[in-house]
Amino acid sequence: MISGIGIDIVHVDRIRRWVENPSILERFFHPAEIETARSRNKGMALSLAARFAAKEAFGKALGTGLAHFALREVAVVNDSLGRPHLQLEGSARREFERHGGGTIHVSMTHEGDNAVAVVILEKGN
């Protein structure tokens, strides 16, 4: 059963401005996300924009927004096929469990100046 849906769009230029400021990156992104994005060279801002959108979409799917966890506690990691998954730590994990836990589905894309993510939360039987 679907327990929450969130969607978010991020203008990539917003993230491009952050790329040169390590303290902002460390505030909003998990170290693994920063490392992955850096490996994409010119695609770093696109990668981070999609991940930022996924974090915002996660908060919307919970119905709480970003009030109860730090964005860096939500990391978008890719499996061996490139499929994104959300990895939760600390307060983000606790908030998800308080919401009822379950399965998190995430899809991200970017085109031109925008990155979009959708998060669907699904509770088990």
From TrEMBL:
It is found in: Cytoplasm. Its cofactor is Mg(2+). This is Holo-[acyl-carrier-protein] synthase. Transfers the 4'-phosphopantetheine moiety from coenzyme A to a Ser of acyl-carrier-protein. GO terms for cellular component: cytoplasm. Signal peptide: none annotated. Residues 4-98 form the 4'-phosphopantetheinyl transferase domain. It catalyses: apo-[ACP] + CoA = holo-[ACP] + adenosine 3',5'-bisphosphate + H(+). The gene is acpS. Belongs to the P-Pant transferase superfamily. AcpS family. Its EC number is 2.7.8.7. GO terms for molecular function: holo-[acyl-carrier-protein] synthase activity; magnesium ion binding.
